[in-house]
Specification:
heterodimer, A: mainly alpha, MetI-like fold, 14 helices, 75% helix, B: alpha/beta, D-Maltodextrin-Binding Protein, domain 2, four-stranded antiparallel sheet, 13 strands, 12% strand, globular, MetI-like_sf (chain A), transmembrane (chain A), transport (chain A), transmembrane helix (chain A)
Chain lengths: 275, 432
Amino acid sequence: MKNIKRVFIYVFLSLAAIVSIFPFLWMLVSITNKSSDVTKGRLLPGTHLIENMTTLFESVDIVPALVNSTIIAVITTVVTLLLASLAGYGFEIHRSRGKDIVFNILLLSMMIPFAAIMVPLYRMFGSISDTAPLFGIDSLGAVILPTATTAFFIFFFRQNTKMFPKDLVEAGRIDGLSEIGVFFRIYMPTMKTTYAAAAIITFMNSWNNYLWPLVILQSPEKRTIPLLISNLGSSYSPDYGVIMSAIVIATLPTALVFFLMQKHFVAGMMGSVKG
Amino acid sequence: MKKFYLMLVLLVGLAVLAACSSGDEEASGGSSAEGAGSADTITAWAWDPAFNIAALEKAKEAYNGDGDFEVKIIENAQDDIIQKLNTGLSSGTTKGMPNIVLIEDYRAQSFLQAYPDAFHPLTDVINPEDFADYKIATTSHNGEQYGLPFDSGVAGLYVRTDYLEQAGYTAEDLTNITWDEYIEIGKKVKEATGKNMLTLDPNDLGQIRMMIQTNGSWYVKEDGSTPNLAGNETLAKAFETYKKMMDADIGKIVSDWSQFVGAFNSGDVASVPTGNWITPSIKQEAEQSGKWAVVPMPRLDMEGAVNASNLGGSSWYILNVDGKEEAADFMLNTFGSNADLYQTLVKDIGALGTYSAAAEGDAYAVEDEFFGGQQIITDFSKWTDEIPGVNYGLHTYAIEDILVTGMQDYLKGTELTKVLENVQGQAEAQLK
């Protein structure tokens, strides 16, 4: 009986695994095929890998897009981690009368869909374009600014800080650390897993962000990877071999970040902290 | 509980604030003098590197006016252009907006109506009579000509002559037929070859659009905004024909563009009724050379319907930002008056324009070996002149979304008049 149950579980899990892995497999196979083979649904590896890659790097010019996406994702991740953790720490560790109200307002801001604030945001960035070109329309700064630190990450850090042993803060103070010192030398190392989880999520969000970069970036040389891929698919006769190659390359960094931090990620999402 | 109310008040306050601020947008929006390109650079947005972008590059080479400016061509996907234009134009700042933009004809009216001041009228710049008649209604608004008509979406029926032959037909037998005759032929072809006659995508009713335009009808009435679904005999006929195709089992169901292209590339279908811009995709499969021909689009079996229709097609628009005079000069000098440019476009990139004077050139008469030596460009441009002009109006895609579910109901057996009344009601409620 137990064996039958086991067989059943394995069959079910294998099916689920195939369903979720198949698109990736198809993507990987497709980068070696030419476009008309991809549309025909060919599942065998072909001989067009080098051709697709050459097109991608020479005529599509994927490198600048990779550089832009990396710059944006890395800066966004660093800024988000720093600001959100500072805020989360402050909200949880320090006592103040109005903090819960402020926190609730922050949470409310999570409920406003981005599409609703997009037009006003565009207007705001338009109005500073002349005085602060680094953050104006068509600048990488304008992509980073609205997405660096969101209410969600402040909430995320505050929730995780609840597990943080407050005695450590006291101990630090007694040993003569300043508030900043406590944060950087005690809080940060202890909360490593939370940082890792937040880093993965921010990085992925930023890397895959589409709508805001789309409206705010205008020059082709500032384009990010998702915008580039969107362009590739816009032709009346898209080259699916090349599109698949671009998608594979676009997937690699997020996959890499995930695998590097996977161990911490799971721990961070569970909210456990090793005191 | 008290806290909850406080939050509620705050939220409502925010909403009111947002509503108010949109009111004064217009007041301050109009005064923004900051243009997209300064006068020495003009930017143009379009999609498809092999087609529209290539056409712009050719135009740039062909420009021989006095203007001293750089043309910066930027490629964006069509949906992306729509998103960017909508955000930019509704924010009221012209920063980052291009000088020249390509807009699909089905969507043009909604832009012209939503942002009447954002576009630069070309009434005094080009002569609308130089272009195919059917393009003018969609590119003008309130008596002003805004768009410079560009590529023709003239549709044709691409047929596999080898499959037809197996079933005892020639391309001649499919010339100037009705959809009903087409279905009969389709059954025979399927019997003889086992191949489906065409692809059908339940989420894309381009098929219906092409059918109803053969009889000069559209989803909306002449005014461009009143839904014209219930009681629209042409639409009812198109729905019936569509169902006949499904019942006859001659359609291969596809769900997206890649499957659509894949179906004819792999030889799964005997014909492709669609816009002429599909030619490069058809020719992509070099092994099928000589096995194709193009015949006029079948018509609906109704009084007044013709064997010519349209699918897609787009036109150039100039935004009302700094550099508009330069942009207008560039467009007039190239797409607006240069017949030779259109020859180049046909020859080098297969883009068929709607500039009437261009049709006389040699490039249009070229015999295409892929299509068994047929002069397909000549044929297409002949059919272009026969396309019934309709006002595509404001809501083509919004109504089509509603029709997609209506079609499913109809195919499942709901009575047609009821289906059309139903979608009419939904469309009226949604588009109010």
